[in-house]
Amino acid sequence: MKKIIIALVLAIFTVGAVDAQQQLSDKETKKIEKSAKKEAKQRAKEGYKSTPGVKSIEGQLIYKGKLETLTEDDGVTPKYIFGNGTTKGGTYNAAKLAAMEAAKLQIAESISSETAAIIGNTITNDAQAEISSEKVVANAKTKVAQKLGRMIPVIEMYKDIDGKKKEVTITIAYEYRIVKEMAEQVIRKELEQEAEKLGQDVDKLLNL
Questions:
Q1: Which of 116, 120, 181, 205 is most exposed, with the fewest beta carbons within 10 Å of its own?
Q2: What domains lie within the chain, and their CATH numbers?
Q3: Do residues 174 and 153 lie in contact, with contact meaning Cβ atoms separated by under 8 Å?
Q4: Which residue, among 69, 142, 72, has the nearest Cα to 112 in the 3D structure?
Q5: Which residues are CB-contacts of 77 (< 8 A; sequence separation ≥ 6)?
Q6: Element housing 145 (H / E)
Q7: What are phi and psi of 136, to 5 degrees?
Q8: How far is CA 69 from CA 24, 25, 31, 179, 200, in A?
Q9: Above 90 in pLDDT, residue 203?
């Protein structure tokens, strides 16, 4: 049983590693590696260190750079959306958890704003005056962040602050297609509630 579990874990990480290698030319790889090396040096100057048991900062930045090149089959839509979070805490774990939540919220806010803007173009002129897009996005952001499940850890590094606190920086990735569908569902639900307040059907509200 133990061997099976280990094999499954290795399989998961192997898939991720292969995924980041798809469709990259030698020229693209060298460009990513050069950029990662430069940024890693800057991070080191700022006092950042990689977390024990995690790849070097340079290695993590290379991985992120490769993930950023991936697209869906259309060759345009990004495969992943990224979120960053940097927070300070009295302990490493406390700072890490807060940074993770900040990164999730950044993903949720980015995709919710984008989705709301697209959907907003279909809202009838009469309804636009009654609906607060800021409110819709704010509500959707929180709900989408809560729904985010298993994310891909991309970068995790930290530095000591005044010898007592820890500052942790986290970057996570989530499949763009999945989180976009999630945001669409959440925002439509928000609009249904707004439509109900206005005494309208959501499809009429959206001019569908």
A1: 181
A2: 1-70 (no CATH), 73-208 (3.10.129)
A3: no
A4: 142
A5: 71, 176, 177
A6: helix 133-147
A7: -60, -45
A8: 8, 11, 12, 18, 43
A9: no
The CA angle 106-28-43, to the nearest 5 degrees, is 50
* Spatial contact of 103 and 171, defined as CB atoms under 8 Å apart: yes
Question: Are 133 and 125 spatial neighbours (Cβ–Cβ below 8 Å)?
Answer: no
The backbone region for 75, taken as left when phi is positive above 0, alpha when psi lies in -120 to 50, beta otherwise, is: left
**What pTM does this model have?**
0.76
Residue 2, classified by CB atoms within 10 Å of its CB into exposed (0-12), middle (13-18) or buried (19+), is: exposed
For 179-189, the pLDDT digits (tens) are 988 888 888 88
Closest CA to 143 of 109, 100, 103: 109
Are the C-beta atoms of residues 112 and 141 closer than 8 Å to each other? yes
